[in-house]
Specification:
The chain is an alpha/beta fold and 487 residues long. The protein is 36% helix and 17% strand. It is built from 16 helices and 14 strands. Helix 3 packs across helix 4 and helix 9 crosses helix 10. The longest helix has 18 residues. It is globular.
């Protein structure tokens, strides 16, 4: 009889696991004491058979969750976990950045969290990003339009399960390469399709350092570098003359342009693109061309084995050269903070933290759903189906969407010059011309307001993810903008 009950009990266990799609998290490993905010994690199944299981972190507004807006935050990549947005940018907790000593990284409160004035859903999208996973190989397909469909399905189902937020103003926000599918999502979802949900304030979006159109974004890198003093006047003039302002699609016959672009690349080769004032980070694994992908994977396995055991004990004998190399790399990564790599050290810490068994249990990650959590999962194939999202800006402007576009002014991946250029291409009239905005009596950046409810702002000293470098200023910008104050 007992044996006959086993299949039923196993099925019941699986059903209960899937039925418990979301859970309140009161404690997190690495954080001292109970969490002083409402954190919920869980899954929402999308597609017809729900073979795609999207993982989310939801944090209620710490002020008034009934009246405050609801923000859906999407991180770019594509393939970077939304948890990065939570701990490195706008969430209520962050990592204490210090030399890694083998123990679980420590979490501390972020005094500039956007959850002070809004509820936020951080969504791991596309599938196989963060803790999101697929039940079948076919469900692993990743593309721009797949993300659009999955984002829409997610929000519909999440709201049906959290009906207290049906009447909340809903903002869509994100940074970097997430911007294409934000536009598609907003554009392809007719307003009247949400009448049953009464989403009457959905017509708003916020984009940080957006990669929007390669013609503007990437061609702006050279004038940006010149303006920042990274290349000479003579090289800049030669580049303009030989390439005619087009640096991305150079014809092989244009030898002079190719030569000048090569000289440009050499000039900036030791500059950190994401923030030109940061120290260049040369990962001994990823930048050593003599090490193959297979060896990198093997070494990473060793690193995780070391961390999991909290010891220098290796799974291979000490004389094993590969193991010795791993130990050396591990020590190097542990001391990145001493060399001035504060942002990079945070990226190392989050990987150790998210792959800890106790952390996964606390977050209620389904056992066996993914093997290794990665900050950014770039290895899986991805189909880019849209080159430029400018037309979506135009369409949404016509529809009356209110928009905030901001750029860290030290970002060379998507320079603010390119963002300004594509905004100019929209042919909006200027409402309030270029002027500084302030925080605590100091200039925090510059801003310009256009017709069609578009506000552009730079964040002084910000990088490719501006809130990671200037959290206080970005929180002030967000808080002022959502209540329609001048920045």
């Amino acid at each position: 009889m007992a044996k006959q009950c086993l299949p039923f009990l196993l099925l019941l266990q699986v059903w209960l696991q899937l039925a418990a799609a979301h859970t309140i998290v009161k404690f997190l490993p690495g954080f001292k004491g109970p969490l002083p905010f409402h954190l919920e994690t869980g899954y929402v199944g999308v597609d017809e058979a729900e073979d795609v299981q999207l993982f989310f972190y939801f944090i209620k507004s710490q002020r008034n969750s009934k009246d405050d807006l609801l923000l859906l935050w999407l991180t770019g990549g594509p393939g970077c976990s939304a948890f990065c947005g939570l701990v490195f940018e706008i969430g209520p907790i962050s990592f204490e950045v210090k030399e890694y000593n083998g123990s679980l990284p420590t979490l501390v409160l972020n005094p500039y969290s956007w959850t002070q004035v809004s509820s936020i859903i951080f969504l791991d999208l596309p599938v196989r990003t963060g803790f999101s996973y697929a039940r079948t190989p076919l469900a692993l397909q990743r593309s721009d339009f797949k993300q659009v469909s999955h984002a829409e399905q997610f929000l519909r189902k999440w709201l049906m399960d959290h009906q207290e937020f049906l009447a909340s103003p809903i903002y869509i926000a994100g940074d970097r390469t997430c911007c294409h599918f934000i536009f598609l999502y907003q554009h392809e979802t007719p307003r009247n399709s949400y009448e049953a949900f009464n989403l009457y304030c959905r017509d708003t979006y916020i984009l940080g350092n957006p990669i929007t159109d390669p013609t503007f974004d990437f061609n702006s890198r050279i004038p940006f570098a010149h303006g920042m003093g990274l290349i000479s006047d003579e090289l800049h003039e030669s580049l303009k003359k030989s390439c005619a302002g087009e640096y991305q699609t150079i014809k092989p016959s244009n030898a002079e342009c190719l030569k000048n672009v090569g000289a440009f690349d050499k000039c900036i080769s030791d500059i950190e693109d994401s923030h030109i004032l940061e120290r260049k980070y040369n990962d001994p694994l990823s930048f050593n061309k003599a090490i193959t992908e297979e060896k990198i994977e093997a070494m990473n396995e060793e690193i995780h084995a070391i961390e999991k055991n909290d010891t220098w004990k290796l799974t291979h004998p000490p004389e094993n050269k590969k193991a010795i190399g791993v130990k050396r790399v591990y020590k190097t990564k542990a001391k990145l903070v001493d060399k001035g790599y504060k942002q990079r050290e945070g990226h190392v810490l989050v990987t150790y933290w998210a792959n800890d068994d106790n952390v996964r249990k606390a977050l209620h990650v389904r056992e066996g759903s993914i093997e290794e959590w990665k900050r950014c999962n770039y290895k899986l194939p991805y189909t880019y189906e849209i080159k430029s999202s400018i037309k979506y800006h135009i369409d949404l402007g016509i529809k009356g969407y209110r928009r905030l576009i901001y750029s860290g002014d030290h970002d060379m991946e998507a320079p603010f010059l390119g963002t300004q250029a594509w905004i100019r291409s929209l042919n909006y009239s200027i409402v309030d011309d270029w002027q500084p905005w302030h925080y605590q009596g100091q200039v925090a950046g510059y801003t310009r307001t256009y017709s069609s409810q578009l506000t552009f702002a730079t964040v002084k000293g910000g990088g490719h993810t501006a809130p990671a470098y200037r959290p206080a200023e970005c929180f002030a910008m967000f808080r002022r903008w959502i209540i329609q104050e001048h920045l």
